[in-house]
Amino acid sequence: MTPATPRSPRIEHVNITVPDSEHTAQLMVGIFGWNVRWRGRAASGGHTVHVGSADHYLALYSPPPGATRPKRFEKGLPLNHIGIEVDDLVATEARVRAAGMSPFGHDDYVPGRRFYFFDDSNIEFEIVSYAPVMDAPA
Predict the structure, then answer these.
(1) Domain layout of the chain by residue ranges
(2) Could you tell me if 62 and 71 are in contact, meaning their C-beta atoms sit under 8 angstroms apart?
(3) Closest CA to 31 of 58, 67, 70, 69
(4) Please, what is the angle between helix 89-98 and helix 21-32, to 10°?
(5) Which of 90, 85, 76 is nearest to 52 (CA)?
(6) In this structure, are residues 113 and 107 in contact, taking their beta carbons and an 8 Å threshold?
(7) What is the reported pTM?
(8) Which tens digit of pLDDT belongs to each residue from 114-132?
(9) I need a labelling partner for 62 at 20 to 30 A (CA). Which of 3, 21, 72, 93 fits?
(10) Contact 89, 116 (CB under 8 A)
(11) CA atoms within 13 Å, Cβ hemisphere of 68
């Protein structure tokens, strides 16, 4: 039996607190085409939805009804942004706009292109693509 090739460390999930985990999950499904992997009661009370791919996901936690709502932090405290890589930046931006969000901070840089948006919970997302840019037809 041959030993498995070791994988480099990777981020498997990010757990964030949002006011409504179901709402945020549906937003992520609509924008990124992800799937809900799991939903249910959180160990500490409240509700959690795991949304993402087979390899990675966001764990979206909402506190139980009647609990103190999560404190809104100023940008950068405690999280600057969550970076999501996509193949089609233009199509993703269209879905972000269709969901009522306002993309900003567009930039082309080596080796990619990006933009940012804030979701309903004031969490900043950076959307980045490393796909080659195709020239427009003449």
Answers:
(1) 13-63+78-129
(2) no
(3) 58
(4) 140
(5) 85
(6) yes
(7) 0.82
(8) 999 999 888 999 999 999 8
(9) 93
(10) no
(11) 3
C-alpha 49/C-alpha 65 separation (Å) is 16
Q: 13-63+78-129: which CATH architecture?
A: Roll (3.10)
The whole-angstrom separation of Cα 65 and Cα 80 is: 27
Residue with tokens 């949304």: 51
Q: How many other CB atoms are there within 10 angstroms of residue 24's CB atom?
A: 22
Strand pairing partners for 118?
A: 124
DSSP letters for 26-43: HHHHHHH--EEEEEEE-T
Residues whose CB falls within 8 Å of the CB of residue 40, separated by 6 or more in sequence, listed in order: 47, 48
